[in-house]
Amino acid sequence: MGALPMDPMQPRPFRIEKVRKELADTFTLELVPEEGGEFRFAAGQFNMLYVMGVGEVPISISGDPGDGARLIHTTRAVGAVTAAMGNLKVGEALGVRGPYGNPWPVEAAYGSDLVIMAGGVGLAPLRPAIYQALANRERFGKLVILYGARSPSEILYPKELEKWRGRFDTEVQVTVDRAAEHWSGNVGVVTKLVKRASFDPLHTVAFVCGPEIMMRYGVQTLTGAGIDPSNIFVSMERNMKCGVGFCGHCQWGTNFVCKDGPVFPFDQIADIFSIREL
Amino acid sequence: MVQIENLGRILEEHPFAQGLDPQLKELMVGCAANERFDAGQYLFREGQDAKKFYLIRSGSVAVEIYSAGRPPIVVESLHDGDVLGWSWLMPPNKWTFDARAVTLTRALSFDATCLTRKMESDHALGYEVLRRFVPVMAHRLHAARMQMLDLYGPAKKGK
Description:
The complex is a heterodimer of chains A (278) and B (159). Chain A has 278 residues and is of the alpha/beta class.
């Protein structure tokens, strides 16, 4: 089931088993393959999700890579296809192509401290890496999760963040841009959390995901804290269409984001990351 | 005397005083006091005279903006090792925000009149204090700009 179908452009039908509203504009779909079996993927990979008769969008997988029974996608409604996806009901069908792309190098980070920095719905593509890291907790040094959201009501997966924070072996810090008086948590941008986080920069791997502007400042702060750019990984988003590097829509410099990414080591893309025209 | 020695030790432990010449440190300690704020207690409120600044030793402080008829908005949190307040440095020397202890907070406070007088008569002290305040201001400005950018919002209309 994890292998690509014969025709990589042919979506497979999945049935919606559960719909969960996460935030005002963000929802999670739990999908199962109509033909049965399991869906295997690596943390950081994405699928092309096809809403019948409306269109297709690339969406990162946000479930547990250790659980092949359900395919989970958290999506923010930002256009016609994702809005239509958000209106789908339990029992309705969705076409799925994938999984595609380069994953987060979770196993390559074994033996290091792991810092995970996410902003807004950027936590969704990182959640599989968090699940995998927690399932293999003894293989890492410090595990630090830094998360920023606009406001307390826009914190994604708040119950899971609380659960992870409740563990004695994981540091979870959450911050928001602004809050009302009753919020007793942190206020400020996510990059400000780095100073207070506990990790050894010389032996740390960092995964960063969020809007590009957040990743730009996130990488600046992490390198400023002493983490080598080759140990910082970012997940890029471009206009992906085919998902397999045929069409060229997601070309970014010499890379195809769908095939060479979406996860890149920062040193590999540092030269083009700041080019505004790309 | 014992108390001043203690304050000197406390000041030395704070990042603000890192690398500060011992003589200048001693001058600063002469204007310092050890303070404690319970959760919910205000360190200062907008519009009051800014007669002090604070080096937070432990705890958490919310910097808030108050607007009539609306609940206060927290715009920043400060923690151990942070510096709170620079309104004492420039006219009209009034606080422009409220500062509220979110948890039990311990801080060194510095009397602005005392310190300003010393800074004016000892320019080495004046230079060192301002040199330490400029990066704090720059970081806060940078953080405020990033908050204005809406870092976590979608970049553009998508599919």
